[in-house]
Amino acid sequence: PQGSEESKAFVRALLKRSMPKMKDEAIQDMLNRKAVVLEHYPQKKTKQKRKKAKGFTAKQRRELRLFEIEPEQQRYAIFLPLHELWKQYIRDLCHGLKPDAQPYMIQSKLLKADLHGAIVTVTKSKCPSYVGVTGIILQEFKHVFKIITKEDKLKVVPKLNNVFSLEIDGFISYIYGSKFLLRASERSAKKFKLKGTIDL
């Protein structure tokens, strides 16, 4: 082990090398008056930014035809099991759809429910050709329903200016499409007003 003199000599030599422009007297003065702090600068760790998984753009989805139903799949009978699943889903959601259930409670549940698989009928429309169209909802978008009819025809029915009726276990609910211009995911979190203007 080094003695005190060797340690002093080492510190002087280190300071002389570290600060070559300073005179010996200034270095000695620094030793006598100040504590020397040997600074250590740790290397900063660069945080790697997590790359968010990017989904397809609307243009890419159209090009890949992700939401298109193939013509051979456009058959009403194929989607009847989906309708049966939907009915069970609504019964569970509304706690059984009992005769003494409050209509307002069922209506509020249906407003936020997923309608894929529901059988709907266009009861009123500003376009007469849509009135009477009945079928299973295959896809719901912000502005349209895609419905498969019993004649195995895929109909694209706009929500705007149309009124739809939906029947399950004797309970009939009416959907005013003009107030329904939302995606299914957005509708589940929306608060619907109790009162409002009812129009097409």
Automatic annotation (TrEMBL):
Subcellular location per the Swiss-Prot or TrEMBL entry: Nucleus, Nucleolus
Q: What GO molecular function terms would the record report?
A: ribonuclease P RNA binding
The molecule here is called: Ribonuclease P protein subunit p29
Kindly state the subunit structure of this protein: Component of nuclear RNase P and RNase MRP ribonucleoproteins. RNase P consists of a catalytic RNA moiety and 10 different protein chains; POP1, POP4, POP5, POP7, RPP14, RPP21, RPP25, RPP30, RPP38 and RPP40. Within the RNase P complex, POP1, POP7 and RPP25 form the 'finger' subcomplex, POP5, RPP14, RPP40 and homodimeric RPP30 form the 'palm' subcomplex, and RPP21, POP4 and RPP38 form the 'wrist' subcomplex. All subunits of the RNase P complex interact with the catalytic RNA. Several subunits of RNase P are also part of the RNase MRP complex.
The record describes the protein's role as: Component of ribonuclease P, a ribonucleoprotein complex that generates mature tRNA molecules by cleaving their 5'-ends.
InterPro entries documented for this protein: RNase_P/MRP_Rpp29-subunit, RNase_P/MRP_Rpp29_sf, Rof/RNase_P-like, Rpp29/RNP1
Tell me which family the UniProt entry assigns to this protein: Belongs to the eukaryotic/archaeal RNase P protein component 1 family.
Indicate yes or no for the key word tRNA processing.
Answer: yes
Output the SMART domains linked to this UniProt entry. POP4 (SM00538)
- Coiled-coil ranges from the UniProt annotation: none
The protein's predominant localisation is: nucleus
Show the GO cellular component annotation of the record.
Answer: nucleolus; ribonuclease MRP complex; ribonuclease P complex
Q: Which organism is it from?
A: Calyptomena viridis
The UniProt gene name for this protein comes to Pop4
Query: tRNA processing as a keyword?
Result: yes
UniProt keywords, alphabetically: Nucleus, Phosphoprotein, tRNA processing
Q: Which Pfam families does the record cross-reference, listed alphabetically?
A: RNase_P-MRP_p29
**Any single biological process term in GO:** rRNA processing
